[in-house]
Design goal:
By secondary structure, the chain is mostly helical. The two termini are 17 Å apart.
């Protein structure tokens, strides 16, 4: 094994690393922490009305708390009738039906871990919210450190162990 090959990891290992990154993102999102080091955000805390009247501010959190049921007859809103919904309104967690966070898929190429999103438009739209977006498509500093340490452990257990096991004579 040549020295530059020590840092090479195959697709299978990188796919596992990508899945671990997805797990870290999901754990942070469930606690209201996003990957741009912001959060937890409260519903309506941005002052982001975007065409909504001030008296309707907070309406989404009321619907979410009631399981996306109508106020007057307690029936599920259209589009949510057969879906279980998250009712946690203590902070924004991007987990109403769970489809956005469950739609993250681990992929890989040689030396590259890839996270694919089924609902990429929703992910990018939430990341662009002002002033601080709900970013789940990157890793924050804490998660980058965890993943870097994980990769270092994998390298130490596999490639470095193979490299130092062979006796090389340098001329």
């Amino acid at each position: 094994m040549k020295l530059p090959a020590i840092t090479q990891l195959n697709r299978d290992v990188m796919k596992i690393v990508a899945q671990e990154a997805i797990d870290l993102i999901r754990i942070d999102a469930s606690n209201g922490i996003f990957q741009n080091n912001t959060g937890p955000h409260q519903y309506g805390s941005h002052g982001d009305t975007k065409g909504r009247s001030p008296q309707k501010l907070g309406k989404y959190s009321d619907y979410k708390a009631s399981g996306m049921r109508r106020i007057r007859d307690n029936k599920k809103l259209k589009g949510f009738s057969a879906k279980p919904t998250d009712t946690d309104t203590a902070h924004v967690n991007m987990n109403l039906t769970g489809r956005t966070l469950r739609g993250m898929r681990a992929g890989a190429r040689k030396n590259v871990a890839i996270i694919r999103y089924d609902k990429s438009a929703i992910v990018l739209g939430n990341a662009r919210r002002s002033p601080d977006g709900y970013d789940i498509f990157d890793l924050n500093d804490k998660n980058q450190t965890i993943i870097a340490n994980r990769i270092a452990d994998i390298l130490a257990r596999t490639n470095i162990k193979k490299y130092v096991a062979k006796r090389e004579v340098m001329k």
